[in-house]
Amino acid sequence: MAAKSTYLETQLLNLVFRTQVAWKPAAVWIRLYTVAPTDAGGGTEVTGGSYAAQQVTQLDANWDAPAGSPRATQNTNAIPFPTATADWGTVVAWAAWDAATAGNMLYWGAITPSKAVPNGATASFAAGALDVSED
């Protein structure tokens, strides 16, 4: 389950009800958090120890067609992160952003169960594990 950010909700309202033209981020990056963000942003993103946000490819072949209730899409390929070279802490949430650093948060969701990522460990989303819903 994922939640739309306040930024994305505003973009969609402007698109549907105002004169904003169609908008799509040029790229999408998945970030990991030790303290979950909210719709307004915030949270504590993992830092150090070779951590880097991971770009996901925006192609139909890489994401399932939205289906179900609520409508959702899932990644069709694994999304791996680099091997930790220091303790990343316990990862409790993820967020999709329109940039690797800074930028605008689009969606976020909890990681259940949370995952400790100690030095030498890896973190990844297996194919089908990152569920992004319309809610």
How would you characterize the overall build of this protein?
The protein is built from one helix and ten strands; from the N terminus they run βαβββββββββ. With 135 residues, it is mainly β. Strands 1, 2, 3, 4, 7 and 8 form a six-stranded antiparallel beta sheet that branches. A two-stranded antiparallel ribbon has the order 5-10. A hairpin with an 8-residue loop joins β2 and β3. The longest helix is centred in the N-terminal third of the chain and has 12 residues. The protein is globular and about 50 Å long. 21% of the residues are buried.
N-to-C order of helices and strands? EHEEEEEEEEE
Radius of gyration: 15 Å
Fraction in helix: under 10%
Mean pLDDT: 93
C-alpha geometry: globular
Q: What labels describe this entry?
A:
135 residues, mainly beta, 6-stranded antiparallel sheet, two-stranded antiparallel sheet
